[in-house]
Amino acid sequence: MQSGGQVSAITHEVQTFTEYWKDRRFASKKPDRTVVPDNFYKPVGNGLFTWQPNLVHGPEAQDRDTGGLNVLVFDHAWRFGAFGPVMPEGFGLRMNFGRRGERVADLTESEWRRLETWLNAQPQVTVEAASDRKSSPSCTPRALPGSSQPFSRPT
After folding, report:
1. Which domain holds residue 12?
2. 3-state SS of the chain?
């Protein structure tokens, strides 16, 4: 997915950057295994890691990519690109202040079905199923965030 794209997703699991790098389930998402990786921050010890060369995000994306506390593993994801639809206010899931502080909500079955129907009805949508999860010459070490607790914003 290109930077700046809109995504709606169901979080299946939360991992630290180190857990994600070491998890065998996501080894195929490393730069040496695919042309569209998303597992490219390698732990190098002492709470540091390095960006691994890849065609998805350059080293300038490191601060944004690692600005959260954890890696979110999605069960399903709807990717709309940079000019995706505006989420209707009625769902209570709109993010108005950028990508950090992702919205977290427990939906009833009927709320979920209504949201899923809306997501699936949008043009140019790509639905990524659980089986497809995604989750430069110089590499600069950077400290990992200190806490392993996921951030969640009240809904």
Report:
1. 6-143
2. CCCCCEEEEEEEEEECHHHHHHCHHHHHHCCCCCCCCCCCEEEEECCEEEECCCCCCCHHHHHHHCCCCCEEEEEEEEEEECCCCCCCHHHCCCCCCCCCCCECCCCCHHHHHHHHHHHHHCCCCEEECHHHCCCCCCCCCEECCCCCCCCCECC
